[in-house]
Amino acid sequence: MPKPTPQAPRERYREQIRTEVKAHAWNQIATAGASALSLNAIAKQMGMSGPALYRYYASRDELITELIADAYRSLANALHHIADKKGDLAALAHGVRTWGLEDPHRYLLIYGTPIPGYHAPPTTTAISSEIMKTLLTAATATPTTPDEIDAHLAHHRAWAGDDQIPTTALHKALTFWTRVHGALSLELTGHLDGMDFDPGELFAAEVRSLMS
Amino acid sequence: MPKPTPQAPRERYREQIRTEVKAHAWNQIATAGASALSLNAIAKQMGMSGPALYRYYASRDELITELIADAYRSLANALHHIADKKGDLAALAHGVRTWGLEDPHRYLLIYGTPIPGYHAPPTTTAISSEIMKTLLTAATATPTTPDEIDAHLAHHRAWAGDDQIPTTALHKALTFWTRVHGALSLELTGHLDGMDFDPGELFAAEVRSLMS
DNA sequence: TATCGATAGTTAGAAGCTATAACCGCCCCA
DNA sequence: TGGGGCGGTTATAGCTTCTAACTATCGATA
């Protein structure tokens, strides 16, 4: 769906090139990983030479920053879509996994080793907390068991925003995150490859552990 | 402790330089991450110029490979040390965390986003399965609960080697790994930074979940 | 002990990257 | 129908990995 705002031709062209650059960037990331992303190579692929891309992105970091924001946006959308129809915490977990398997490098761009000098801009942190919000509302609808940590979280729950959410749900959302990420990231980084069992089964088992 | 084998002076010197190079490499990794590791910079720090290091490491990748192997070795040793005195699965988990906090980049070098073209040599996979073995023996000593996955793992347990280990222990060791990595890697990559609770508390809660 | 070969280190240079600077020409808007 | 801004170009600096060719020195062996 194109943006409804009718833009000046210069602006339209500019935006088109930017998305084309990002398309090539994703392509490159999917094959060789984020560290191998090269503005030069992208320019060559687009039939223009080197420094031309600096008209569109001030630096390689700026491009990566936008790619990260887009990845976050994509994940948030996928999760919203799931939350809207079922809202089940288990469905969300499997949604995260299918989203991650769709393009492992995209997942790792967000949740893998951080880029050395990179600091998340407010837009991505906003999307991140948006995702957290979705998790929290789903977590309130699932059964929870009390834990020692509840006392601690009761005093450190500013990040959750909404005061209506029970403390046990905060814990549930947090463990959702760590367990989903734990099983999925090990699968995506290939650390489960040596063993011949199905990573999906292990993931499913973790999801079950979340639902009790 | 120095190696007991008395080596030829040439060989001794060679080994000394190699370890000195690695020391600088670790220093550099700890500050700027693995992707910023530069042979050139290391050479300059050591007072010699550029290509001299290629006498000691055929390529940047070879150096990184050895660093990874050393990191694995270090983690394995730390875990062995713990297993020898208590053997408790919880103690092992907290051991992994303190090892990771000691040098986050070292942990991420192993368990973070993999280097694009990197394939683990047999030595590191050997250490990896050595660690797994330690986990498995510790897992047999902790209470386990049956799960659907047990049927699957019963038919895919070649990686565990030892046939004496109960299937539920395999599952326990696996979930140990995914949960410990999940909570710890999110902490180390800074994804828990926005919230003001203590990551150690969350980690401890996950460890408790492992012990039941 | 004297010699000779292996080895450590050097500089030069190719190919690649990010990024800046200076310049040209076209497009679009007034 | 101008004219300013913008896209694209080449040149260049400075960084990287890594190869090639050369020198000097160290050490094992005759």
Automatic annotation (TrEMBL), chains A, B:
The keyword Transcription applies. Signal peptide: none annotated. InterPro entries: Homeodomain-like_sf, HTH-type_TetR-like_transc_reg, HTH_TetR, MT1864/Rv1816-like_C, Tet_transcr_reg_TetR-rel_C_sf. Keywords: DNA-binding, Transcription, Transcription regulation. Gene3D superfamilies: Tetracycline Repressor, domain 2. Residues 15-75 form the HTH tetR-type domain. It comes from the Bacteria. PROSITE patterns: HTH_TETR_2. Residues 38-57 bind DNA. This is TetR/AcrR family transcriptional regulator. It comes from Catenulispora yoronensis.
